[in-house]
Amino acid sequence: MSAATKQIRQILKGHRCLDIIGRTFVKSGANMSSEIEKKFALPRRFAGSEKSVWVEYIQLASEYNPLNLGQGFPDFPPPKYATDALAKVATGENYMIHQYTRGFGHPRLVAALAKLYSQLIGREINPQTEIVTTLGAYEALYSTITGHVDDGDEVIIIEPFFDCYEPMVKYAGGVPRFIPLRLKSEVKGRLPSSGDYVLDPNELESMFNTKTKIIILNTPNNPLGKVFTEKELVHIADLCKKWNVLCISDEVYEWLVFKPNKHIRIATLPGMWERTLTIGSAGKTFSLTGWKLGWVYGPANLMVNIQMIHQNSVYTGVTPIQEAAAIGFETELPRLGTDECYFISMPKELEKKRDYTVKFLSDVGMVPIVPEGGYFIIADWSPLESRVDINSEKDKYKDYRFTKWMTKNVGLQGIPPTAFYSVAHKPLAENTVRYCFMKKDENLAKAAEILNKWKNSK
Ligand SMILES: Cc1ncc(COP(=O)(O)O)c(C=O)c1O
């Protein structure tokens, strides 16, 4: 055998070998990957929360490039003093502002928050023990829910609800119990208002039992815009006291309330301070949602549970952002209640945007539910049903089909409100769409133009 042939055989042998090794590898790789899949699947307690309306609709917007009234943030600048403060903090001489700050809240910020809420609540709030600052109201909700819900605890959630409440309760081992706001009686001769949506008092009472640990309240409510009245809050408070239940009050839209409605902090009702944890957001307060700064305040004995979760999950918030937000509050504190105060001027501006949005939605034939607060509006699109080919979309719920069809064919994006309901109550919202009106006037005018053009094209 020539040296060359020997070499070729050697190579082929090598190839056979490689082939066998390769096949074995592929086979064991396949086993391995299914084993990996099995062992590293999403933990069971998170099951059911894989689908996110936000992920899906951001993707939809990037594909079809509609005018986006879906996402809940302003498309105009925040107050100048806030961005100036951040710039000054970032480039100032105090380089220690770029290092970790106190875990439970940057001292200058908790001092400002304590000053503000002591006035609003009518009792002295201790900045050291009665406030924790967090990474957005999201983390405030997470640390508050995780820090208080035990296995099997029942948590009452009022629908429609900010969509993370349900998964957060489940992650903590709790059992969500849902109660929807329902239209109290047929509305004739005017548009419905978010105030027409109420909890049935008997149904509410029937939700409470010895396993009830928490009720989550959101006033003003996202997405309906309902501002709970004193009477409604007193009923909730009485049930909380009767059944020894904690109230988590998500008040991120506390300043965005339209006249003549008034934001009432449930913590101020008799006997409620000791059983209420109230959540706020700098993102919503100063129109800068990207800062992701939130807080919780409440009695010290309940705050310790929140501190525990916070210290072991995020430990501390972003120092420069907290410093700049503190400057923001220090700017507003002396002018609280006056016309120059952003917390007064912003809702006035927003009310005009609300009215404009109500008008252009009505003009196209939808029936908007006029919100009393917040920056979202829900509208019934069913009068337009014959003009939309929603069945060309494949989703289970009609509002998903409607919003997708509108995004693709009309160029205006909203959010499907069934995302804010439990499975049992989704049918209540299938004929509706949610739009955000915290947008530049020119973009709201564009939305009006898009809808008007569509109306006239049919
Ligand atoms: C009702 C409600 N709670 C909490 C949050 C979260 O706020 P943040 O952006 O401060 O995390 C939002 C945000 O849209 C909200 O609408």
Automatic annotation (TrEMBL):
Q: Name one GO molecular function term.
A: pyridoxal phosphate binding
User: A GO BP term, please?
Assistant: kynurenine metabolic process
Q: Which UniProt keywords apply?
A: Acetylation, Aminotransferase, Lyase, Pyridoxal phosphate, Transferase
What's a Pfam family in this record? Aminotran_1_2
Q: This protein's superkingdom?
A: Eukaryota
Domain named Aminotransferase class I/classII large is located at: 66-450
List, alphabetically, the SUPFAM superfamilies matched.
Answer: PLP-dependent transferases
Gene3D superfamilies given in the database record: Aspartate Aminotransferase, domain 1, Type I PLP-dependent aspartate aminotransferase-like (Major domain)
* Reported cofactor(s): pyridoxal 5'-phosphate
Reactions this protein catalyses: an S-substituted L-cysteine + H2O = a thiol + pyruvate + NH4(+)
Q: Report the GO terms under cellular component.
A: mitochondrion
Statement: the UniProt record of this protein carries the keyword Aminoacyl-tRNA synthetase:
no
Q: Give the pathway listed in the UniProt entry for this protein.
A: Amino-acid degradation; L-kynurenine degradation; kynurenate from L-kynurenine: step 1/2
So where does this one cross the membrane?
Answer: none
Q: Which family does it belong to?
A: Belongs to the class-I pyridoxal-phosphate-dependent aminotransferase family.
> Whom does it interact with, and what assembly results?
Homodimer.
Please identify the protein, giving its name as recorded: Aminotransferase class I/classII large domain-containing protein
